[in-house]
Amino acid sequence: MPGDSRRPRSGNGSQQGSGTSGGRPQNRGAPSGSGSGDQKKGGGKPKPKESTKRQAMLNTHRINPFKYDMNEVLSASSMDPAKSSAFLATVIAKASRVSTRDAKDFAKTYVTNGDLTKEEFDKISKLLDRYSKYR
After folding, report:
1. Is the Cβ–Cβ distance between 59 and 132 less than 8 Å?
2. Can you give the residue range of the structural domain that contains 73?
3. Is residue 91 domain-resident?
4. Is residue 91 within 8 Å of 124, Cβ to Cβ?
5. pLDDT tens digits, residue range 53-110?
6. Which residues, at least 6 apart from 6, have a Cβ–Cβ distance to it below 8 Å?
7. Which helix (H) or strand (E) holds 23?
8. Number of domains in the chain
């Protein structure tokens, strides 16, 4: 079939020596000389999970009521509105990802700077305690 262009022609009519097609697909992702035989493929005992101490963190299911209550406290404070939104975002991030203790420490820095009063800090601490859970 000299006019058949569907199949590429090989030099000797055999694809045995080319190594690019036919048979198994080649493993191009593995580095050369990696010695894949010495890697474990599961099985055996799993490592015991190291337990960490549970910490109080912001309950993310109740984040909207927390934001509402925090906005009430911050709107009554003397803090600049642009600064208060950044403050609120940082408090939420620290309380939901690290711990409420770190969020309280962050809020305490604003008390020492004079942006928050001690009473406002106490209200924020109570809100963090009310909307937190141990995890």
Report:
1. yes
2. 56-134
3. yes
4. yes
5. 899 999 999 999 999 999 999 999 999 999 999 999 999 999 999 999 999 999 999 9
6. none
7. none
8. 1
pTM score, whole prediction: 0.63
Is position 112 within any domain?
A: yes
Structure tokens at 98: 């690290």
The residue among 1 and 99 whose pLDDT is bigger is 99
36 falls within a domain: no
DSSP 24-89: SPP--SSPTT--GGGS--S-SPPPPPPP----EEE-GGGHHHHHHHHHHHHHHSSS-HHHHHHHHH
Measured CA distances, 49 to 40, 42, 45, 46, 56 (Å):
19, 16, 12, 9, 21
- The reply to whether 37 falls in a domain is no
